[in-house]
Amino acid sequence: xxxxxxxxxxxxxxxxxxxxxxxxxxxxxxxxxxxxxxxxxxxxxxxxxxxxxxxxxxxxxxxxxxxxxxxxxxxxxxxxxxxxxxxxxxxxxxxxxxxxxxxxxxxxxxxxxxxxxxxxxxxxxxxxxxxxxxxxxxxxxxxxxxxxxxxxxxxxxxxxxxxxxxxxxxxxxxxxxxxxxxxxxxxxxxxxxxxxxxxxxxxxxxxxxxxxxxxxxxxxxxxxxxxxxxxxxxxxxxxxxxxxxxxxxxxxxxxxxxxxxxxxxxxxxxxxxxxxxxxxxxxxxxxxxxxxxxxxxxxxxxxxxxxxxxxxxxxxxxxxxxxxxxxxxxxxxxxxxxxxxxxxxxxxxxxxxxxxxxxxxxxxxxxxxxxxxxxxxxxxxxxxxxxxxxxxxxxxxxxxxxxxxxxxxxxxxxxxxxxxxxxxxxxxxxxxxxxxxxxxxxxxxxxxxxxxxxxxxxxxxxxxxxxxxxxxxxxxxxxxxxxxxxxxxxxxxxxxxxxxxxxxxxxxxx
Length: 510
Known about the structure:
This protein has 510 residues and is α/β, with parallel strands linked by helices. It folds into four domains: 2-94, Glutaredoxin; 112-322, NADH-ubiquinone oxidoreductase 51kDa subunit (Rossmann fold), CATH 3.40.50; 325-415, Ubiquitin-like (UB roll) (Roll); 420-501, de novo design (two linked rop proteins) (Up-down Bundle), CATH 1.20.1440.230. It has helices at residues 9-13, 16-26, 66-71, 91-94, 112-117, 122-127, 132-142, 154-163, 184-191, 193-207, 221-236, 267-274, 303-313, 317-322, 355-362, 396-401, 420-434, 440-457, 464-477, 481-485, 487-496, and strands spanning 2-4, 31-33, 47-51, 54-58, 83-85, 170-175, 211-217, 252-258, 298-302, 325-326, 329-330, 332-339, 345-350, 372-377, 384-385, 410-415.
């Protein structure tokens, strides 16, 4: 008998380790599998038991619930107030189209055999029979675009690296997931790490790279441990090394841990950090695809981009992936619902569902029960959308048309108690704190932005024109997206919530 208790950071933070310990003590004959999370955050720890009728879920479970669960027939899927039933039938999961997260929460993250039995390695085995141009052609036809924020076509990036002459090329996975309200990268690494490894190996074979790096943030200790263990298993089983699955292709992988600088999520700053330098943004050109890590051609993709690759490269996968989505936004997007939301978690869906459906229907509105006032999409540098824009389809072009960005797919919800002027100030303060300091518009502009917003909050609304000019300078003059995107939350707050930027009544003395 197997009992599944998520071992990822989210579940551990709400007592999953204690639940696992209690179950080991109470059920010594059962195998406790520390799987990944399925992404139903409000039900964690979501404990599942294998029964003849399939897996039955219970959640949220606390260690103190274990005796009562066992008395109610938990091991046979018995009735209990915590019983969720078959997880796949839960409305939150049933409405999803799980491609990237097809195995997450189901498989033992450190069982390569189980990974393969559930469809893993099919893409890699097919790739071993193809040459680089054919692999990249499949990828391009799938329509995959970078899931890290920019939405750049992945096939074009890989083709550039393939065609760049060099004695050494690299694959770099940007796992420095620093956006507020985002956790999809972490979930992949903690719940299905062989998917990421397979994607990186395929990328290496496609462009002629023999070495890869996963750049992980230090705030993800669970992910660091799991990916390191998975890499060791992959090396032992021949998935990594001098002969990938017995082929003529070589690929080695190393995990590097960053020190938590937000700016190192920008690809060139990340490369400087990998080289042992202070993380600072590089001027482009040259692009990393031409002169990246140690001056060599380098593919830099984030976790979700590389994790989508194995499914695309399996037989028939490119066409199936391209059939999902709308317009130029193809495939699925793992949307991360966070903030003041009733049902937070990960919801993977083809591009095209509206923002309102995601927040109100899937997320259930606010956790407080108060009206939704604003939703920020795309992390701390994303624009704030009011309910009037909830008809916006979740796709790159639709958000761009409304001065927004999808970014890494994070959706953060705020109720009607939020002060949008102070949220605009927070964006400027965040930029000032996290700036690498290399370019003047970002370094100085964000500091001046905090000062101007303090003046506006104090009642000097005449400074709004200056704030707009400052945002224009940052948007078009900054070296990277940190300074260039900070105007999105600031100006969207001013545009959609002007009442918060008017003179305020003085606060009563305490």
